[in-house]
Write a structure and sequence with these properties.
alpha/beta; 8-stranded mixed sheet; two-stranded antiparallel ribbon; 10 strands; 40% helix
Length: 293
């Protein structure tokens, strides 16, 4: 198998078989991220793609779900995605779904009719690193799109029947701005239909622009208890049925919930942590994080 650069997949795709569709990120400007800073975006040549499919078919001929790696393979054109999806069935006859990372920017050029065709070919399960639905926070993080873009593009996915997943990041708005970020993000996310929402908490690493901004005093990180309060507000204001996973290593206290059923339970759990654990203990946990995966 041909794997170059940084290769990873989200925890919920652990059961999927992986194949490299691309490496690097087409955007590479998010101020909190350094995952692909040293990599140029590269699409795997079709010859390499088919070579990998052939090898995958030898070891896992009955693979039913595969994950296309790369920061955002959905940035490929409709025709390229279609060609690659069709070629999968030449090698993996039992394949049912193909998942991948995507950005809101990657959906924009594609028409609903094209998205429906991609869904019919098995492309279903887009992990979208939204991080926020608040325009101030999106600008601060330099995400390259607005809250309205999230709504407009994800409604296209809803219309096409493509399943997708969001990420929300506590602390990304900075000190004193978590409440606004949580309320506005919950409103935006509630206008579309993510299958589930993963929650991370901002961890500043030295090779990111946001870390440098913090060093210059241009960005003040939110405290740990403020982040938990932000998560409470976010959960309280969501108005949709959704699985929520705030259990990555970046979260001081891991919680999972099905909303709205578990709303009061999980908010109470988080409150208990704030009442019984000191800010200094939480800060020590954050300082000791050297990597998130």
């Amino acid at each position: 198998m041909n794997f170059t650069g940084r290769t990873w997949r989200p925890p919920y795709e652990a059961g999927s078989f992986i194949i490299q569709a691309a490496s690097g990120c087409t955007y590479n400007k998010c101020r909190f991220c350094s995952l692909y800073k040293e990599e140029c975006f590269r699409m795997s040549p079709l010859s390499e793609w088919e070579e990998d499919l052939q090898e995958l078919s030898l070891y896992h001929p009955n693979a039913r779900r595969i994950f296309w790696t790369g920061a955002n393979p959905f940035a490929m054109s409709y025709e390229n995605l279609k060609t690659r999806a069709l070629s999968v069935y030449d090698y993996l006859k039992e394949c049912q779904t193909m998942a991948m990372f995507a950005s809101i920017r990657d959906i924009k050029p594609k028409k609903v009719k094209q998205l429906r065709m991609l869904r019919s070919l098995g492309i279903n399960g887009l992990s979208i690193g939204t991080e926020s639905g608040d325009d101030y926070t999106l600008r601060l993080a330099d995400k390259g799109y607005t809250a309205k873009d999230i709504i407009d593009q994800c409604r296209k996915l809803d219309e096409a029947g493509i399943e997708y997943y969001f990420v929300y990041m506590t602390g990304l708005a900075g000190k004193g701005n978590g409440y606004q970020n949580a309320v506005n993000s919950a409103k935006v996310f509630s206008k579309v239909n993510p299958r589930f929402i993963s929650v991370d908490s901002l961890t500043l690493f030295e090779d990111t622009e946001l870390f440098e901004m913090a060093e210059r005093g241009e960005f003040v990180p939110a405290g740990e208890k403020e982040r938990i309060e932000e998560l409470q507000v976010f959960i309280q204001n969501l108005r949709l049925k959704v699985h929520l996973f705030a259990d990555s290593i970046s979260n001081f206290y891991p919680v999972t919930a099905y909303l709205p059923r578990d709303k009061d339970l999980v908010i109470g759990e988080l409150q208990n942590i704030m009442d019984t654990v000191s800010e200094e203990e939480m800060l020590a946990y954050r300082r000791n994080l050297k990597a998130l995966g």
